[in-house]
């Protein structure tokens, strides 16, 4: 009986030693293949769950690198389809929103800004917008001046995961594009977009002509933007 117990203990020690060695090898390689090999050899190990978790992390990292290398709205949508609650899911949603709103080619934006707008020219700049009365006013940035024309024409500069991030970006843009943004008042518009809960950074302008001129000047200077029409 004593001999059998000694043998059993010896086998257990050898097994633990092999498991430890295999785990160290998997960590050293730090690859999906290495962790999968460990799981196959030690499926009942307490470390198997840790190996599975690391395998998922590595797969997500690989897919995120692929999405960012392609850098299109579709690539980020595909990433979100696989990892809706992943490490980079919030960033992917923001990038999808920015592509949807600011995805027009720069030359198209400039052309749109430069194109004649007969209807807009014929409309008085101060003409009231009937729908504006029923549209909720945007949420003002903490450091922003009071919004000037709630519900009017706006130029959108980006979309962010929080008001603080939008505010930080406004401070950067205000310094970099002082000539284009001038004394315009920023605002943040919260929205439940297809990409998730986001906060759109916008500046308000007096009319469509000013909106298109501002966006055209920003685009020419290298800043993506889009004119947002009143609804």
Write the layout of secondary structure elements.
Layout: H1 2-29, H2 32-41, H3 48-70, H4 73-82, H5 89-102, H6 106-114, H7 118-122, E1 154-160, H8 163-176, H9 178-181, E2 185-193, E3 196-204, H10 208-220, E4 226-228
Antiparallel strand pairs: 1-3, 1-4, 2-3
Helix pairs in contact: 1-2, 2-3, 3-4, 4-5, 6-10
Describe this structure in words.
β2 (185-193) and β3 form a beta hairpin. The radius of gyration is 28 Å and the shape is elongated. It has helices spanning 2-29, 32-41, 48-70, 73-82, 89-102, 106-114, 118-122, 163-176, 178-181, 208-220; strands at 154-160, 185-193, 196-204, 226-228. It has 231 residues and is α+β, with helices and mostly antiparallel strands.
**Fraction of residues in helices?**
55-70%
Number of helices: 10
Low-confidence stretches: 104-150
Distance between the termini: 87 Å
What shape does the CA trace take? Answer: elongated
Strand order of the largest sheet: 2-3-1-4
| Strand coverage percent | 5-15%
How would a crystallographer describe the biggest sheet?
Answer: 4 strands, antiparallel
What Rg is obtained from the alpha carbons, in whole angstroms?
28 Å
Mean pLDDT equals 74
Name the helix and strand elements from N-terminus to C-terminus, one letter apiece: HHHHHHHEHHEEHE
């Amino acid at each position: 009986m004593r001999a059998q117990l000694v043998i059993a203990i010896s086998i257990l020690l050898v097994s633990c030693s092999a498991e430890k060695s295999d785990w160290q090898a998997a960590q050293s390689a730090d690859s999906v293949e290495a962790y999968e090999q460990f799981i196959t050899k030690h499926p009942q190990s307490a470390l198997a769950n840790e190996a599975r978790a690391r395998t998922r992390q590595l797969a997500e990292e690989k897919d995120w690198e692929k999405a960012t290398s392609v850098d299109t709205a579709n690539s980020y949508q595909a990433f979100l389809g696989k990892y809706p609650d992943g490490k980079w899911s919030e960033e992917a949603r923001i990038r999808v929103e920015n592509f949807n709103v600011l995805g027009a080619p720069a030359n198209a934006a400039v052309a749109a800004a430069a194109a004649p707008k007969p209807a807009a020219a014929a409309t008085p700049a101060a003409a009231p917008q009937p729908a504006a009365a029923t549209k909720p006013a945007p949420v003002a940035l903490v450091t922003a001046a009071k919004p000037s024309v709630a519900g009017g024409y706006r130029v959108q500069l980006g979309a962010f995961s929080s008001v603080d991030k939008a505010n930080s970006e406004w401070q950067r843009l205000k310094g970099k594009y002082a000539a284009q943004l001038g004394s315009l008042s920023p605002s943040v518009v919260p929205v439940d977009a297809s990409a998730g809960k986001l906060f759109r950074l916008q500046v308000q302008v007096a009319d469509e002509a000013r909106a298109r001129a501002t966006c055209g000047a920003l685009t020419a200077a290298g800043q993506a933007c889009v004119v947002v029409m009143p609804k």
